Amino acid sequence: MKRIALALAVASFATALTAAARAQTPAERVGRGVRAYRDLDYDSAAVILRAAVALPGTALADSDRVRALVYLGASELYQEHRDSAAAAFGRVLRIDPRYQIDQLIFPPEVTGLFQQVRLVTRAVAVVVQPLTELRIAGDAVSIWLYATTFHPVDVTIRRPNGAPLRALYQGGISDSLQLRWDGRALDGTPPDSGRYLLQVDSRGADGHVVRSVVLPLDVARERRDTLPLPAPLNDSLFRPEHVPGGTGLRQVLTGLIGAAAVAVLPSVVAGRASASGDRLVVAGGFGIAAILGFQAARRPQPIPENIAANRALQLAWQHEVDSVHARNVARGQEVRLLIRAGAARVVEAQ
Amino acid sequence: MNLRVLPLLVACLAPPRLAAQVPRYLGVDLSLSRPRFQSTSPAGGERLSGFAVSERLRIVLRPVSLDIAYAQGRLTADTGNAAARDIVEGSLFVAYRPVPWLALKTGPHLRAYAAPGGTERWALWEGRAHVDAPIEGGEWVAYGEGWMALASSVNVSPGSAGARGAEAGLTLKLPQSPLWARLAYVVDQARLKNNARTESVQSVVLAIGFGGR
Q1: Pairing state of beta strands A141-147 and B24-41?
Q2: A285 touches chain B (CB under 8 A)
Q3: Cβ A279–B204 below 8 Å, yes or no?
Q4: Is A279's CB within 8 Å of B202's CB?
Q5: A289 in B contact zone (CB under 8 Å)
Q6: pTM value > 0.90
Q7: Taking the alpha carbons of B97, B98, B101, B106 in that order, is the dihedral positive or negative?
Q8: Which domain holds residue A13?
Q9: ipTM
Q10: pLDDT tens digit string along B85-125?
Q11: Number of structural domains in chain A
C-alpha cells in the first residue's frame, strides 16, 4: 500500500514537472539551460538544452537555437563529451557561418574547440538584398557570401528546372566574397519572369559538394510603356494646294487670234501679193498651242508656296513620329527587372 | 483691211501680265527661214523663193533691250526667167518695254538683193510694236509684231514710197532650260514711188535660241 502511494506521488510530481516544462516557451527553456550552465550544473544544462534544440525548426528561433547549441557544446565539453561538443558547434556554424563565440563568456578550451570546428566546417552564409530593381546597364544584384573557413564554392543562378542560367563564380572563398548578377543570362538577355534559384555549393577537400545553400530569386520582368504617337494632322491645318482651273477661253482665243492673224497678215500687209501656203504651218502651231493651253488652263493650278508649307508641316509631323517611334524602340529594349530574394535553405549532401 | 487693224489685234493678244519677263537677259538664236519674194509692177512681176539663215543677239536690261540681227540667203525663180539673187539683211533695234507685254522698237533695217545685173539696196528706219501673250504658263508664248518704215530709201528709181510689215509667231521655252524655240510667220512689203513696183517677202522662220540671265 505504501509502495502504491509512493508511486502515485512520484507520478504526480513528474506530471507536474512535465506540465510546468510544457508551460515554458522555447526561449524560456533555453534560458533555464543557460542558467543551469552558469550554475555549473552541466548535466541539467545539457539535458535541458538538448531538449530545446530538439524542438522542430519553427518552434525555436535561429538565434535561440544557436545560443542553446553553444551552451550545449560547452556543457558537453565539460562533461568530457568532446565529440558531442564538436557536433553542437558544427551545427552552430551550419546555422550561422558568421557566428563568433564570445571569448569573455567562454573559457579558452571552449573557444579553442569552437575554432577547431570552424576550420573543418565548410559552410557559407548567403546575404542578398530582399528587393533589387535593375533599370539600366550596370545595375546588378549584390550577393554577399560569408564562409566559415577557406574552401571552394560554385555560385550559380539556376532556372526553375535546375538548369543553369548563369554561372557567377567558381573558386575559393576565405572570409567573405561579394558577387554581382546583372540580371542577365549567359547570352546577355534578360530572363523571363519567374522563380530562379541562387545556389552556392560548398565543396569538400575531395572536391565533392558537401552542402548547398539555395536561395529563391523571384524575377519580375517589366517593360516600359511606349509613348503615344502624335495624332495625325488635321486636314484643317493644311493649306489648299491648288486653285480650280480656268475655262481655258483666253488660251483658245489667243491661239485662234494668232492663227487668224497669220491667215490674214498677207492681205493686210502685202495687199495683192499672193499669200504663201507656208504660213499654214505657223497657223497650225497656233492651233496646237491653243489646244495645249486649253487643257493646261482647265487643270487645277498648283500653289507652290502652299505646297511647300504643307510639305514642311508633313515633314515636321513625320519627324516627330519617327522620333517617338525611335524612343519607343529604345524603351522596348529597356527591360526593368525586379528581383526579390527569398529565405535561404541549406541542403546537406547525402 | 490695213495696218489700222494691227492695234486691235495687238490688244486682243495682250495678256494681263507676263511671267517670262526677266530684268536681265542675254541670248542668241539661229534660225532657218523660207523666204518667198514677190514683186509686182505694171509690166509684170516675178516670184522667187529660197532659204536663208539668220543670227540674232538680244541683250535685255529691262525696260530697255537691244536686238542685232543678220540674215543671208539665196532666192531662185519659182516661175519665169527671173534671175537668182542673194538676199542679205541686217538690223539693229533698240526696244523699250513700258509694260511687260508690250515692247516698242525702233532702228535701222538694211536689205539688199544682189543679182548679176546689179544690187538693189533698201535702207529703212522702222518703228515697231511687239506684243507677247502667254498661252500656257510661261512655256508657250504667242507674239505679234507690226512695223512700218518711218523713213526709207532705195537705190532704184523712182525711189522708195515706204514699207511695212508684220510678224506672228510662237515661242516655246521649257522651264529650267536655257533653250527655246520659235516658229513665226513674217511678211513685209516695200513700195516704189508712183506704184512703179511693190516687193513683198513672206517667210516662215524656225529658230533655236539659247540664253539666260
Answers
A1: unpaired
A2: yes
A3: yes
A4: yes
A5: yes
A6: no
A7: negative
A8: 2-120
A9: 0.83
A10: 999 999 999 999 999 899 999 999 999 999 988 999 999 99
A11: 3
